[in-house]
Amino acid sequence: MHRLGSRPPASLDPMVAVTAHDMNCVNTVILDRMQSDIPLIPKLAGHLIAGGGKRMRPMLTLASASLLGYGGTRHHRLAAAVEFIHTATLLHDDVVDGSDLRRGKRTANIIWGNPASVLVGDFLFSRSFELMVEDGSLKVLKILSNASAVIAEGEVNQLTAIRRLDLSEERYLEIIGAKTAALFAAACRIAAVVAERPEGEEAALDSYGRNLGIAFQLVDDAIDYVSDAGTMGKDAGDDFREGKMTLPVILAYARGDAEARAFWLRAIREGENGEAMLAEAVQRMRDTRAVDDTMARARHYGQRAIDAIGPFASGAAKDAMIEAVEFAVARAY
Amino acid sequence: MHRLGSRPPASLDPMVAVTAHDMNCVNTVILDRMQSDIPLIPKLAGHLIAGGGKRMRPMLTLASASLLGYGGTRHHRLAAAVEFIHTATLLHDDVVDGSDLRRGKRTANIIWGNPASVLVGDFLFSRSFELMVEDGSLKVLKILSNASAVIAEGEVNQLTAIRRLDLSEERYLEIIGAKTAALFAAACRIAAVVAERPEGEEAALDSYGRNLGIAFQLVDDAIDYVSDAGTMGKDAGDDFREGKMTLPVILAYARGDAEARAFWLRAIREGENGEAMLAEAVQRMRDTRAVDDTMARARHYGQRAIDAIGPFASGAAKDAMIEAVEFAVARAY
Q1: Alpha carbon A130 to chain centroid distance?
Q2: Residue A37: CB partners within 8 Å, gap ≥ 6?
Q3: Which of A332, B46, B219, B265 is deepest in the core (most CB within 10 A)?
Q4: Please, which residues have CB within 8 angstroms of residue B199's CB and are 6 or more apart in sequence?
């Protein structure tokens, strides 16, 4: 049994180490399959794919396969497919959000324009299905095509929730469960499919990924109110400026008095989002412990992720997967 | 043997009649599978799906299946998948092109904004793969995932060719072969897969669809220089205003003298695209027979489409598929 928080300081290094060899193979597939006779495609895709992402999702596929002692190579192609789905989503997200900075770099839509980002996203998405078809497992195809549809639904759900201060924590959890956690869950689950493990192990890995994904997104949402672009490669206050409803805002609004609610209406619904407003938002979150408690919620899901893989045999892969959760929930501090 | 042009006036009615019963089933699948708990999704998707499109691509799947005497129902789900891919492409296209009118109606991106169009497109694309996975044929999945990647490549290719007057007819044919004809070809080919026909028949139907698709796009490109919004549900001159390189422009430019080329440079590369410029462009195309000869090229591909299905048994389906080609190439007049 592992209690979250009992082993800091945490890092992603053990998971990187456990998956290093396989990740080389995945990177080869990724580089090979993002090629095209149309030069703009590898150029634009490469900007994001080579752009210093952690390859978290394919790493989860690889770590899960390692946890199960899988000795084959099918997961390389599928991990690349997972990364392509993620990359396509990021390209479209940046268009949808009008973002200009991701991981500390200018976004593809800023450099090459929205049309190219939309179309190269479509290309990568199609390529991911081609990779799955080459693998040939209808079960994997079902898991990942369903995850893709759920992600898109979650994104639309979030879009329709923009600037809606009456968003409930429940609906917010539905949104991040779809737009973020579904792919984490699928990335882990498919490892059990290729390793031909029983349904119970599939479900356990799905649960690990899903809860980790929720924890991950909650921490991301908290970070938006505590970090700056220098440390996180993301503009602090991006969510605030976009009027995005995240748990810190939901909690600060729910816990505030009439005067506080008036502030949040001005900031989120009416879009008064200058530096002074952001500073005040951060202060109000501190006063209501909204960010701290978003982190507490993240730890709750993190603990559930850890417990989900409790039944699996101990070893380097399991330790790494546990520490990845520790890392995910410790990032903001 | 059927010689193109020997049976005017042509209409799509015979193909509609041949596929009417099956199309009811396809429409049921489409309406069922565009649903979502997120109300914006069916609303936005329905705007385009119920918006008076001819359902040309799924109709081709159904007509091809009928040509082969296929008696099952698998093609209903797959035809719906084809229509979803097409709809997703249209939603993204309108964002990419900044279009405001399609089939005589305001486009989804104008009504609901680009972000929603991008995301609902992603949703429909994912749903199309879910439908294919439910059918369970890896061969169909391969054909359609490849077609999707090719379409996206073609769109990017076209994007990078914008305002490039040096575009060759060859590269233009590559572009429309990818962005339009690939899905026509796949829509026809998958009928042979579900009917379990030999490779040769698959290839013949692929060829019919591909050549029809090229003819179709050539005529569309010609129409942009002869029609008005009232008759075609498309703004005449859209391509001209966007600086899109299409065969009429390629021919008019190639056939013009130095003075003519200077005109096209101003119009296409520098974007001088007011009404007077459009009128002059149309006149110059008339003088160089650029539109007429684009139509002649279309008839060439149309004849190839008809000859590709020559070996199949005569009957209502074959007659309807031939007349669909006649209709495609006769549309402008």
Answers
A1: 23
A2: B153
A3: B219
A4: none
CATH number, residue B70: 1.10.600.10
Q: Alpha-carbon distance B316 to B309, whole Å?
A: 13
* A21-41 tens-digit pLDDT: 999 999 999 999 999 999 999
pLDDT value of residue A332: 66
Facing residues of B101 across strands? B106
Q: Domain containing A126: what range?
A: 13-324
Residue B122: which of A40, A92, A127 has the nearest Cβ? A92
A134 lies in some domain = yes
d(CA A151, CA A181): 9
Q: For residues A149 and A144, what is the distance between their CA atoms, to the nearest angstrom?
A: 9
The answer, for B171 touching chain A at a CB cutoff of 8 Å, is no
Distance from CA of A230 to the nearest CA of B (A): 28
Q: In DSSP terms, which residues pair with B102 in a beta bridge? A: B105
What pLDDT, in 10s, does the model give residues A276-291? 999 999 999 999 999 9
Q: Say what the pLDDT of residue B275 is.
A: 92
In a domain, B146, yes or no: yes
Judged by a CB distance cut-off of 8 A, whether residue A118 touches chain B is yes
Q: Which of A95, A145, A157 sits opposite B38 (nearest CB)?
A: A157
- Looking at the complex, report in whole angstroms how far the Cα of residue A299 sits from the nearest Cα belonging to chain B: 29
- Counting the structural domains of chain A, the total is 1
Give pLDDT tens digits for A209-266: 999 999 999 999 999 998 654 444 456 788 999 899 999 999 999 999 999 999 999 9
The answer to whether residue B8 is domain-embedded is no
Smallest CA–CA distance, residue B91 to chain A, in Å, is 11
Q: Name the CA radius of gyration of chain B, rounded.
A: 20
- pLDDT for res A228: 55
Which chain B residues have a beta carbon less than 8 Å from that of A32?
Answer: none
Q: For residue A66, is it within any domain?
A: yes
Q: Name the residue of chain B whose CA is nearest to A116's CA.
A: B156
Instruction: Give B19-76 as a DSSP string.
Output: HHHHHHHHHHHHHHHT--SSTHHHHHHHHHHTS----HHHHHHHHHHHHTT--SSHHH
* pLDDT (tens digit per residue) in A109-146: 999 999 999 999 999 999 999 999 999 999 999 999 99
Average pLDDT of the residues in B5-25: 90
Which residue, chain included where needed, has tokens 């109110």?
A225
